[in-house]
């Protein structure tokens, strides 16, 4: 996987359908463990709710792990439709929980699918969606006299500097997309010289 979409931060939305209240909560999570922890927090927050249906898609070890639950609603009326919407939007590292407070009027299977789907779509639409692309975290060691040239190069090419260490030489940590890695490797593109060039890790940025 070279890229995926995720959200910037937690968002909540609310829907009333035939006196039933649906509260949709969306979270950015980076692991199955984190998703489970957030789910537990929601269940504690809405401990008196009839249902806390959920779905998540998480990238671990270069594969997508998917899970959903109807949490007592009729089979495939909540979790599966919610998961389908995550997949349609190419969202990963995302957990959505839709909490239902029953209003006394039965919605039927079709009504439940529509309510959970709409709640899921609404909270996604309220979220700030960000694109994550495959890239590298890199340390570059340079002489002090080269620092401003490196800063200029990074700014010009939209390469993010995440840290600068002022030691015997300067060690600059950058994050960049994979398609830009060769740009900074080729000496004919540079107006500075580096002493060491070390890829620390591959990551989504």
Please, could you describe this protein's structure?
This protein is α+β, with helices and mostly antiparallel strands. It folds into 2 domains: 3-127, 2-Layer Sandwich (Ribosomal Protein S5, domain 2); 133-204, Alpha-Beta Plaits (2-Layer Sandwich). 28% of the residues lie in helices and 41% in strands. The chain has 5 helices and 10 strands, in the order βββαββαβαβαββαβ. The protein has helices at residues 32-45, 79-88, 108-126, 147-156, 181-185, and strands at residues 3-7, 11-17, 20-28, 51-60, 63-69, 94-101, 129-142, 160-166, 170-177, 196-204. The strands form 2 sheets. Strands 1, 7, 8, 9 and 10 form a 5-stranded antiparallel sheet that branches. A hairpin with a 2-residue loop joins strand 4 (51-60) and strand 5. Helix 2 runs parallel beside helix 3 (108-126). The protein is elongated. The mean pLDDT is 95.
Structure summarized in a few sentences:
With 205 residues, this protein is of the alpha+beta class. 28% of the residues lie in helices and 41% in strands.
């Amino acid at each position: 996987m070279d890229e995926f979409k995720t959200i910037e931060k937690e968002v909540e939305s609310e829907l009333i359908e035939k006196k039933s209240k649906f509260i949709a909560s969306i979270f950015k999570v980076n692991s199955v463990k984190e998703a489970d922890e957030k789910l537990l927090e929601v269940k504690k927050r809405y401990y008196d709710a009839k249902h806390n249906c959920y779905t998540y898609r998480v990238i671990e070890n270069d594969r997508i792990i998917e899970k959903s639950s109807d949490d007592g609603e009729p089979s495939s009326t909540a979790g599966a439709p919610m998961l389908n919407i995550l997949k349609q939007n190419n969202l990963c590292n995302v957990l959505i929980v839709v909490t239902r407070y029953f209003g006394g009027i039965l919605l039927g299977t079709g009504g439940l699918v529509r309510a959970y789907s709409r709640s899921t779509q609404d909270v996604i639409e309220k979220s700030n969606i960000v694109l994550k692309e495959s890239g590298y975290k890199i340390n570059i060691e340079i002489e002090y006299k080269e620092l401003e040239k490196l800063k200029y190069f990074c700014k010009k090419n939209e390469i993010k500097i995440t840290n600068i260490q002022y030691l015997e030489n300067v060690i600059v940590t950058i994050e960049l997309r994979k398609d830009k890695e060769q740009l900074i490797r080729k000496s004919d593109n540079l107006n500075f010289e580096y002493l060491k060039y070390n890829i620390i890790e591959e990551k989504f940025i």
